[in-house]
Amino acid sequence: MTTKVEAAEFLRVAMGNRAVTFREGQWEAIDHIVNRRGKVLCVQRTGWGKSMVYFVSAKLLRSQGHGVTLIISPLLALMRNQIEAAQRLQLRAVTINSTNQTDWDVVRRSLLADEADLLLISPERLANDDFVARALQPIAARIGLLVIDEAHCISDWGHDFRPDYRRVGQVLARLPRNIAVLATTATANRRVERDVASQLGDGVQVQRGPLMRDSLALQAMRMPSPAERLAWLADRIPQIAGSGIVYTLTTRDADRVAQWLQSRGVDARAYHAGKENAERQVLEQALLTNQLKCLVATTALGMGYDKPDLTFVIHFQTPGNVVAYYQQVGRAGRAINRAFGVLMSGEEEAGINEYFRDTAFPPQWQVDRILHALEDAEDGLNVREIERAVNLRPSQIEKVLKLLVVEPMSPVLRLDGKWARTPHAFVMDRERMEHLTRQREAEWAQMQAYLKNERCSMQFLAEALDDATAAACGRCAVCLGHPVLAATVERQTLIAAQQFIRHSEMPLELKKQWDLGALATYVATFGWNKANIPLELRGEDGRVLSRWGEPVWGALVAQGKEAGRFDDELVAATVELLRQRWPAAARIAWVTCIPSRRHPDLVPDFARRVAAALGLRFCPVVEKSRETEPQKHMENRFHQCHNLDGAFVIQHGANIDGPVLLVDDVVDSAWTLTLAAALLKQAGADAVFPFALATTAAK
User: Fold this and answer.
1) How confident is the model at residue 156 (pLDDT cuts 50, 70, 90)?
2) 11, 261, 409, 660: which could form a disulfide with 266 (CB 3.0–4.6 Å)?
3) Cβ atoms of residues 664 and 599 within 8 Å
4) What is the pLDDT of residues 118-145, one digit of tens each?
5) Could you give the CA distance from residue 564 to residue 36 in angstroms, rounded to a whole number?
């Protein structure tokens, strides 16, 4: 039997040989895992020290001769932090993930030789047949402890449900019946707690601690206008000591807020899934070492990021539920006496959260379309072949396949990189999905109640998470009766923010590869024979004035589409962009546009007015030779190309000398502009500068 004294010595080493003692509940969890080989679900607030429970347990189990501890962790950032922490305990931690493929063979050998103490993987790795066969199965009987980090992801009811977490049950079935199991989360109400415990099997000991955070001073503010919120950030963040995080709901807003703060002298950087892994690591470290004032981040920076002295977490928009908000705001003030958690509410957030709810589960027709395609394929289909068969985006196909493959009697099977239909019948549980959607709607309503809250904000959050110790904190804006940070903005800052939004256009990058199998007409006509679009047929980097429906210009574009004519303000904004903020556009010698048979005058009229304002000639040389389906209905590269194959021609004998501005109203995939640019270049245009008034791309 391991004693508390022995365990405490490992804790001291892990904490840098400082004189520390176990927090309430830590030793009890370790004792149950190590001495009783039991199962523990640990629900404790962020910063309580859940990782110390499994690191110390792993160290003790290894000293007793047990095998590697398998840690299932949802994010690479979280894995990196865990590996660094494990090394302080002289635990040999290895990982198999998408960023270290060159190390996989070395890692496998160390596992087979029992030289590794910890193996960290994502739940998605459990879907990889090669990993299961070559790495997991050979060591399954020797695994000493299974750790499921951020265990709320197992639950359908969790705010961050991930289908691949359902594979945890399959892993448990392959492991020894008496294996110790630790599941940890900081964000589980009683419903999620019961759901997770039931999936871990019999005999789970649930350990729940208080969720009240003594260091956090909370505040909620309604600021509908993005400009007002930007101005508030620029005014207040420099006044807060230390460093922090600003959370946004979209990557677009993360980039835009970071750019705005930089323009106001705040050392801020954007962090989201669109960044390369190496860049994200650099940004994490920069914030950790206080080389940055703040990261402006999506949920890509969330679970497990550990900087104990963050002095603020500010939300630019309201998250979809209390659990997600508590987890994110809980990053602040872990090891300091006072930190700020500010929630701002904006006019766009309801639509964004509604989109997230509506797309959480694939619709029945997508599932049916993929299953029918697989039924018709004797040898199975890879993802590219499925794209051709079903006209769905790769992300949509991935979502459907993930949903299907984790079913106990899965209707699909993946072998040698191809997906095949199994004999198992499948009927989507629409009732369950509708129930979950209604639950998420109720959670959104709960966030609205938080914004209107007239009693302690921290108490509201704790009670929403079923914390029996919830009580008034005495530090939030509600308890104090006044803002913890002034809610006003400086007039000049607001004017600058409004101007920034009017100038916050986006780069427009055309495609670099096309699907020649979808472009038979053009291939036959021009002899195109390379998957990479030749440099001599590529357009230049372009610009998009706005995002569809977004203040200011995006809303005006939407109105113009509805009215059948774009406002002169959009002409003026486009000319200003071309003349003042797009240096390469000085080369443009003439203007043309993308034609439409459905709205033949809308874009030509706009492009003609832009040309006149610039003092350039307008030549509508791009002609549409046949009607096509709306490009917005084409979901992947094959169908986007195929829908446009042979649809455009360049007017015979047209004067196309000199660089040209190619104008469209709304862009999504950019394939229309990519092909039109290639045709113009094929016909002799010196350079093609693409421009669109708005984008509908969801980023």
Assistant:
1) low
2) 261
3) no
4) 998 888 788 777 788 888 889 988 999 9
5) 73
